Amino acid sequence: MTSKKLSYGEYLQLNNILDSQYLQSGKQGNLVHDEMLFIIIHQTYELWFKQIVHELDSVINMFKGNYAQEENTGLVVARLGRIIEIQKLLIDQVGILETMTPMDFLEFRDLLTPASGFQSIQFREIENKLGMDAEQRVRFGKQKYDEYLDSNDRKRANESEKSPSLFVLLEDWLERTPFLQFKAFNFWESYQSSVEKMLNDDIKRINENTTLDKSAQENSMKNYANIQKTYEALFDEIKYKQLLDAGHRRISQKATLGALFIKLYRDEPVLQMPHRLLTQLVDIDQLLTSWRYRHSLLVFRMIGVKIGTGGSAGHGYLKKTAEKHSIFRDIANLSTYIIPRSSLPELPKELKKELGFYYTYAK
Ligand code: HEM
């Protein structure tokens, strides 16, 4: 008996995939040409969302538990890098949909109500697995986002909200950053005086800047007073807690100090991978924000300020999510505390040795 050889179409289940474009306009007996593009674009997004969820799940698993994830950092960085490349493609893809004109869209738009991308369960899973703060979500009605989902999807959304997100696991990991206290070395004290000098230099520059009018100068000074306050809070538990309580920070003080150490001493061999990882999380967060902006501009060009098929204020709602739905903002914001390489406190020799790789030994 000869077994049937696997074919390309069978392996990829092409019959299923290519037979899944049901045009609502066709069903109504008035087929609209552009509806095919509309469906295929959304389906392609969902396929890529599936790949992103797949990568995120594996990264989250590698981060779980208290064992040494350091062994996995290379793989985590590789997989996050893949997510980043997919996200770039997702932003680019919007241009294809923009070849459809608003008038062509109007030919079939009403047939979609009340369906909306707002109900994309995979998009919600991506947000939740990354660590979207449920309390901070922009609402467009009185209901929570999950109430617009069917019961199966709602269950999935709730599960992804409850299980430890990448944000939470990262915070844990950063809190365990070693070397923050190294014997008698008081790194933070010397760092503090470098930052103080940097901020005082900036304030001096603002005061001496004759191109700024009085109100611009006052604004800059106010801004710097805030920076100084948050900087003081870095080393003061009570002040940091006030920032957390007021919603100005989300990540713990201990994790912030760990992340800052990694950012400042990124050139040390042991810290290079962790630094890449932190950079990638900021990339992923900002690419998600870029997608949100790109999508909200697409919506503005397609429907102006009309309401969405899901019932939101459309462009207005989406613009707000782009401004507010950031997950790793605190990591990007660490740049406020970065000092020039030349002002970095020098690490004791013993600590530098701990942070290096030694394959060869000088005789
Ligand atoms: C003509 C093109 C499009 C229009 C006019 C449009 C319109 C909208 C509107 C108005 C909303 C807000 C919810 C509502 O009231 O319905 C929304 C949400 C959303 N759309 Fe689109 N959309 C388009 C294309 C796409 C594409 C190609 C995707 C890819 C998957 C997508 C994914 C989403 C997602 C994930 C949300 C939820 C965003 C959030 O709540 O943060 N949309 N869309």
Question: Quick check: average pLDDT?
Answer: 91
The ligands bound in this entry are: protoporphyrin IX containing FE
Query: Strand fraction band?
Result: under 5%
The helicity comes to 55-70%
What is the number of E strands?
0
- State the helix count: 17
Structural class: mainly alpha
State the low-pLDDT regions, or none.
none
Major sheet attributes:
none
Which shape, going by the Cα principal axes? globular
Q: Please report the distance between the alpha carbons of the first and last residues.
A: 69 Å
Give the helices and strands as they follow along the chain: HHHHHHHHHHHHHHHHH
What would you report as the Rg, rounded to the nearest angstrom?
Answer: 25 Å
List the helices and strands and how they pair.
Blueprint: H1 8-11, H2 14-18, H3 24-27, H4 35-63, H5 73-97, H6 102-109, H7 121-130, H8 151-162, H9 166-175, H10 187-208, H11 214-234, H12 237-245, H13 253-264, H14 269-303, H15 315-324, H16 329-332, H17 349-354
Helix pairs in contact: 4-5, 4-7, 4-9, 5-14, 7-8, 9-13, 10-11, 11-12, 14-15
The structure holds protoporphyrin IX containing FE (HEM).
